Every structure is written in structure tokens, then in C-alpha cells.
Amino acid sequence: MAPAPAGSGALAAPAGSGAGAGAGAGAHTLAFGPPTGAGATPPGPVPGAPYGPGPEGAPPAATAASPGAGPAPGTGPAPGHGAAPGPATATGWAGAGTLPPPPGAPPGFGPPPPPAQPQGPANPAQSAAVALLNLSGLGLGYVLLRNWIGAALCWLATAALLVAALPADVDGVPTFVVYGYLAFLIAVAIDGGRRGARASLRIGAGLRRLALPLALVLLAVPAGGSLAYGAARDEAKEQALLERLAAADTLVKSADGLAFDKAEPTYRKALDTYQDLGTKHSGSRAGKLVPDRLDAYYTSVSAPYDKKQYCAAVPPLKHLRGLAATVDKELLGSRPAKTDEPLAESLYQCGTAALGVQTANPTAGASLNELLSTFPKSTQATRVEPAVREAIKTRVTALGGAEPCDATAELRTLRSSLDEMPDPSLEPASKEASDAVQKGDFACGTDQFKDKEFSTAATTMTDYAKTYPNSPQAAHARSIAIAAEIAEEEPAAGGSLPPADVPGGARMVMVVSNDGPGEVELLYTGPMTGKVTLKACGTCTKYQTPLLVNSPKIKACSGPSSKYPKATLLLPAGDYHFLQKRAATGTSTAGDTKSSRTKIEPGYSYTNCLYVTSLF
């Protein structure tokens, strides 16, 4: 091969390069192709470069070049030359456009290599074990991977859940906390499974085989915790329900002894709690105690009946009987029906005790009416009519006693009660009560007269005569009223009751004349009692009373007889008391009265002149 022309890429060998002899004295020539000639030395191996095939396929021998030797700076093929590489010479690689790779650093120099991350093949069982260990909420999957940050996050999340959940109460953990924690567990389980799929765990093979079973076992931790928390929460609910039950019991006890109208709101509140526990929480411990509490409730509310306070027992017994309309029937059972007999008995006892009692509340009519309408077929209803008749009989007997007016007032009240009771079975008793009241009014009037209560007796007997005009005693009542009116002015006139019958025998005439202004009513009582009214005398005036001693006496009725209005009385012999009551006129006032006393003897006739005197 002819030598290359100057400047074609020949490199001069530096002095002392140790290169072997070649063509041309003291110089080496780069040529394309393998080296020729004896003593040609192939290039030594380059660190990191693969071996190329030597002649005959043998690896080339190492060069004698010093370490780090290479082409001089600035040498090499010009850019753009694309000659194929040739064999290396003593000073570099043969061929245009190529550079040798950089030499490796000497031992002990340069940055240390990064630690190798062991990556094995994917292990599904290991991935599942790590995921399940994290799913337990204890972060043990991260502990196995030595990922302490992830483990700490799991511990913090579980601790936060425990703080929020404990101690267990009725309301439990807020829903968003539960769902948030579940989402967190799922996230760390997925992350742990991803990390553990190819991780090389620094544990023995035996422990590695136990990881998955252990993870499955540890899943019982959140499951068991959830069950334990559920049990604790259920117990908290039970305790809360028991506390509600105890509060209702306290309400019932606090109402004991109070009047029912004041205690009813408290009873209602306790009953609402019993009903809620017995229906909505019937399976709870508190709910199972409700039947016993209802028995105690009925006993407490009906306590007045047990104490024989029958009138006071009626409202609470009606309340208990009416609960069937407002409280769950299955919860109440037969309890409301058991109040029928006590309520009927209470109405009977309260009603019959109120017969004739004017101040009774409720009245006898109200209680007995309710009994007859609510329990018409009860034994108590059949006892009402005999009880009413017995009450009437007792009061009639009392009319002959010391206080007939009190007995009469009771009879009148009893009759009013019967007027409120339209039951046909009581019509005969109502008639007896009316007759007894009439008898009592007369007995009361006569007793008042005897007790010198003349004004009251006069009113009582006047009312009797007006109320019972057809009574056989009406005339006698009028006589007593007249005598009582006279006795108010002249007490001696009330020494004894006027006779009930008109006496027989001779009668004496008494002519009474009115010699005064205004109409005058003349009342008289004695062996015979009555009154007459004389019309006014139109020309008559008052007589002035003389103040001088030995003045002439007043000569009343001295004018013509026809001048004076007159009345004739036929009186049996005896002592009489008279009372004149003159009506008001221009010269006299209403209520001008004057009493007098006269003795009527047999065989005489009498005149009586009525006049008015005045100082002016």
C-alpha cells in the first residue's frame, strides 16, 4: 500500500512511546484495515468496551501504552468524515472519525455507586399479606416493609378513631369519621400491596410464610374492635334506656299524694316514656321492665280508691280506663278493663254520699248520672234507686227533730239532684223528694216561729203559701206568717203558734174604720188570725198630738159614719194583737205601723178606729 499523503490523518508518534518498528523510520502511519507487518501490536482493551475479534478470532494482546495515553488534543478526523474505523496503531485507534472511550477512574477515586435496590419477581402472596396487615389498622404491613412514616400514619389514624369513639355512647361515632377511616384503611392496604409485591423482606423464610396467615388473623382486630365497640354502644343504649325508665319511675313517685288534676301532667309524662320504651324498645332491658312499671303505675294512680276516697278516685280511674284510646293496646293488655268495677263503685259511693249535700262537688246527680249511663247493667246501678229512697226517708225523719230546716235544705238539694237524673227508675223517688220538701218547708217555718225568728218565719210561710196554694196547710201557713209579722213589732204576739183550725162558738163583731190618709192593712192574731185591708180616706188627715198637759183627747172617727172606709171582723172571744200597716201618702211614709192589744169578750160588739197622729 502506498504511503498516505501528508495531512491525511497521519499522527506522529511521541518520543518514547514504546511503539514497535513500522514502515518509515521513526514514524507510524494510520491506515484503514488491519495492521500489517511483523511486530504490529493490536490495541489493548478499553474499560467498558467489548472485545472485538482479533486476527483469527483470538482476543488482541494488551498494549504497552501507559494508562491514560490517548490521542493528542485536536487530532482526529475532521467532522463529517465517515470513514470506517481501522485497526489501532501504537498511539491510538486506526480509522478516521473515531475517538476512544474515556478511561476509567483509578481505584479509590470518584463518587460511590448508589446502593442497589433488590428487586425480585412479583410475589402476589407477599403483596396480599402486606395489604392485609395494613388493613388491620395497625400499620404492620408498613412495619414489615420498614416504612416507618406509613406505619406512623396508620397509628395516628387509629388513635384518632379511638379518641373519637371512646368511651362508647348512644350516638356512636359520626358517620363521616367511620367512612373516612375506612377509606384510609383501603388506601393504605392498596399502597402496602403495591409496595410489597416486589420488595425483598428482611425476614426469614419461615416468618415470610407466616405473614399471610398472620395478616388474615389480624383482620380480626378491626372486626373484633368493631364488635366490641358495637357491644359497648349497645350497653350504653341500654343504660340510657334504663335511666329513662328510672326517670319515669321518679315522676310517678313524685305525683303520689297530689290531687289528680295537679298530678295528671306528671303522670302523662311518665306514661309517654313507658309507652316509648315498651313499643319502640321492647327488646331492651328497660323495655322488658315496662309491664311491671305499668302495673305499678295503675296501682299508684288508683291509690285513692284503695284508701276508700271514692270521690277523689273517680278522675284517676277514668284516666286509667281511658288509656286504651291513647296508649298501645297490646302494651296495656287487660289493665283498662280491670278499672270498670272500681270506677263504678267509686261513682256509686261518691254519688250516694253527696245526696242532700249542698256543697258536694261533684254533685250527687253528676256522679249517679255517669254511673247509670256508663255502667247501666252494673250491680251498682241497680242500687241507686234504693239508696235515693233511703236518703229521702232519713231526711223526712229528721224533720221532726231539732233542726228541721237543715233537713229541708238537704231534701231540696236531693230533689235538685234527682231533677238532673232522667233515668225512669228514679221517677217515684223524685216524687217522694218533692213531697218531702213541701213537708220540710212547713216544718221549717213553724220551727223558726218557735225559735222567735219571726221575720224568717214570716218569709218562709209566705213562700210556702204561694208555692203550694193547694196544700191543706196553706191557710195555716198564712196565719203563721201574719202572726210572725205582728210578733216582729209585738213579741208577745209570738207566744204560741196560731191554731191550725178555726175555733167554733160565738163570734163578736168588730167594725174597723180608717180615719187616716192612705190605705191601711190591719193584721190580727189571737184565737183567730187574719188581716183586712181598708181603702184610703180621701178627706182624712193626721191628728196633731197635743203637747200641753190636760189637753183634750183626740176624737177620731167622730164624723159621719159614711165618711170612713170600713171592714167588719167576726172574732171569737179572746185576747188579740193588732198591727196596722199604712201605705205611703203625701203626708205619711210607707211602713208606718202601730201595734195594739184588745180583748174580745163574749156578747159584745166592738169598733176600732184607725188614725194617724203627728207632732206637726
From TrEMBL:
Biased composition (Low complexity): 1-16, 59-69, 80-98
Region described as Disordered: spans on this chain: 1-124
Annotated transmembrane regions: 148-166, 172-190, 210-232
Annotated Pro residues bias: 42-58, 99-118
Alphabetically ordered keywords of this record: Membrane, Transmembrane, Transmembrane helix
Upper taxonomic lineage: Bacteria, Bacillati, Actinomycetota, Actinomycetes, Kitasatosporales
Signal sequence range: none
Protein name: Uncharacterized protein
